[in-house]
Recover the amino acids of this structure.
């Protein structure tokens, strides 16, 4: 997948590397000297209490904020994320918790929203609805494994997992997607829809797209992620492999009762939703 940089001799470059990321808002230090590494075919979960810095870090990755210090590398090449457009250009896109879908529109219209193809009949432009439908069905199947029974129904009528798939298809459409960020993808979903969404995340990973999941639900994190990165007070406290760790260990790192790499003293608190 990597094309931007050049692989190191004998060692494959990370797909994504964030080094020394620091960001302040006035006198408030939101993120301090954070490193993040993601390889192809991996799912990385980022967890932490409210105010941990998760949202700020991801908004820096997606070009919403610019860091005060630090660097971002895609495939070994340094990139500048001055806007969402810059992040999309280098293959990083995000699906936020609200999904950003227009409920009254069908899936193809949502996938192509703002990028609608047109065809001309006698010089008059018309939306190419057939192309949008066919391309949406192809993108959904190739990148999420989801097939809609009826692509003409309003998106409001789709299940939570199907709506997630439509949002992912839109993210794939506008970029040569390398990294997909998913913000609280299982929030407010029932048990069956949660299972479908976790399967969807794995399907995206299996199709070669690396995934970063922001979540407060450790059960869901351990069901889907390869690695878990813990943040507290704007710092990276540590990182574990889900195969050799547990929710108890990660929760201890979050609240400060366990020491991880780079840990610092803080007042224990309960695990909450994303900052």
């Amino acid at each position: 997948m990597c094309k931007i940089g050049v692989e190191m001799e004998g060692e494959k470059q990370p797909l994504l590397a964030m080094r020394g990321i620091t960001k302040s808002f006035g006198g408030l230090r939101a993120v301090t000297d954070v490193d993040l590494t993601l390889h192809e075919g991996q799912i990385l979960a980022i967890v932490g209490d409210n105010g941990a810095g998760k949202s700020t870090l991801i908004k820096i990755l997606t070009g919403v904020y610019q860091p005060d210090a630090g660097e971002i590398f895609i495939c070994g090449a340094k990139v500048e994320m001055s806007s969402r457009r810059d992040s999309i250009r280098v293959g990083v896109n995000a699906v936020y918790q609200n999904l950003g879908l227009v409920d009254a529109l069908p899936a193809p219209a949502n996938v192509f929203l703002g990028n609608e193809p047109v065809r001309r009949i006698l010089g008059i432009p018309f939306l190419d609805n057939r192309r949008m439908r066919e391309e949406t069905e192809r993108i959904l199947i190739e990148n999420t494994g989801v097939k809609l029974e009826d692509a003409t129904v309003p998106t409001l009528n789709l299940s939570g997992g199907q709506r997630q798939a439509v949002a992912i298809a839109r993210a794939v459409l506008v970029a040569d997607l390398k990294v997909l960020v998913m913000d609280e993808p299982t929030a407010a979903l029932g048990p069956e829809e949660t299972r479908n969404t976790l399967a969807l995340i794995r399907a995206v990973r299996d199709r070669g797209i690396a995934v970063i999941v922001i979540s407060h639900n450790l059960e869901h994190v351990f069901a889907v992620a390869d690695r878990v990165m813990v943040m507290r007070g704007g710092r990276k406290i540590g990182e574990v492999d889900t195969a050799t760790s547990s929710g108890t260990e990660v929760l201890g790192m979050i609240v400060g009762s366990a020491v991880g790499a780079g840990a610092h003293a803080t007042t224990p608190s309960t695990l909450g939703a994303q900052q």
In short: The helical segments are 54-61, 84-89, 107-111, 129-144, 160-173, 191-206, 218-224, 247-255. DSSP finds eight helices and twelve strands in the chain.
